[in-house]
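Q: Hi! Curious about what CoA transferase looks like structurally. Here's the sequence.
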Amino acid sequence: MGKLSGITVIDLTQFLPGPMMTVMMADQGADVIKVEPPCGDPARLQEPFDTYDDTEQSVWFANLNRGKRSVALDLKGQAGQSALRELIRSADVFVEGFRPGVMHRLGFDYESVKALKPDIVYCSISAFGQQGPLAHHPAHDMAVQARAGFLAVNDGPDGTPVVPGAASADLAAGLTALSAVLMALLGRDRTGEGAYIDCAMFDSLLPWCVHTAGSAIAGGTSPVSRRQRSLGGAGFYQVYKTSDGMHVVLGGREIKFARNLLTALDREDLLPVAEAPAGEQDELIAFLRETFATKTRDEWVAWFADKDVAFAPVLDFREALDEPHIAERALWIQAAGGGHHVAPSVRFAGEDWIPGKVPGLGES
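A: Let's find out. The predicted structure is below.
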């Protein structure tokens, strides 16, 4: 019995933000009914594939839709609309990820769904929200990051923005939507009233800039990466290349870490530079670049083993998933039928987690 057992979720979302939100609910026992078009969620076709319950499935789809039930409905037809209405009457949560206006045209906007289930918690996930100048503008994650200012500081040494490695706007929206839905369910327990949630990827991502965009938030100029403590302006929050062409990072700016490392390297004279403002640490960064270039990545891992310094090797995903830490915490597991899952980050002490079955299209 998971923490959300007894909660029924109608999930009309595809790709990443919505499915990430609802799989977290399914992992905790919610009955998530994934409503797919007759052709299925496009993520079903995304390579690579693995074997789940003796069936080849997309790894992406499997990891974001395990434990759900699948119902294939054509919502443009009367039969599909009638079937969805029946599902809504016994649901607690309704989640959709279409562009603004689509649900109204289909007859499943909040007011229409509320008429069927007065205490429904209804969540719309979109790029820029249901109202505003950008509400109808198409966008996926990177475009949202670009408009929110984040891509400008996701840049290389020459200031050129690069494609981000994490879909931060998608992920922020999924977590924000989950938090909002759980808050609404708690409120419903007290008042008996449901809620409507307008969750925008843009709105969800924006608050995460407060530690880097302070100057702009205060009404001034935008931050420049090379002058920011967390964006490349500090020697002890920096990426360094090793002699074998690999990379390591220093990931803690506290002076105790600087003291420990610079003492071990016999360069205590650079401590004042480590305490200088970001953007004024070029001497320290140059020394550390020269130093890290003298050993391989793995040699540095061994060298740092007995040092209290926030240091880490830069691993690729294969290396990361094969780390003993991940095995010890059972974060990457092999499920029945051979398929692999990344375990949920939310797990409760004393409770075992077993991944739910990955549904075929229309499979309950």
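A: A fun detail: The first strand starts at residue 8 and ends at 12.
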